[in-house]
Amino acid sequence: MPIHIIPINKLSAGALKGVIEEFITRSGTDYGTVEAPLDTKFRQVKNQLKNGTAVLVFDDQTETTNIFLAYDPVLKEIDTGNTDRH
Description:
Blueprint: E1 3-6, H1 13-25, H2 38-51, E2 54-59, E3 64-69, H3 73-77
Antiparallel strand pairs: 1-2, 2-3
Helix pairs in contact: 1-2
């Protein structure tokens, strides 16, 4: 499954905002026992992407974008085709 880690500085501000908003409103996204407001979730995810604790991933096969924690074991098990995370 060829996926690519996309450096966030390669996206426009609007595109990055759209990706993050889609991710945080996706069904099944869990933020713990207390539901956080969308603007809080947005800031948390954006900060994680900026500081490198999360990465933006594009899957060629499904043509979808996702956000993973940088240390997620799933990323180690697949051939990313691009390991440049910054």
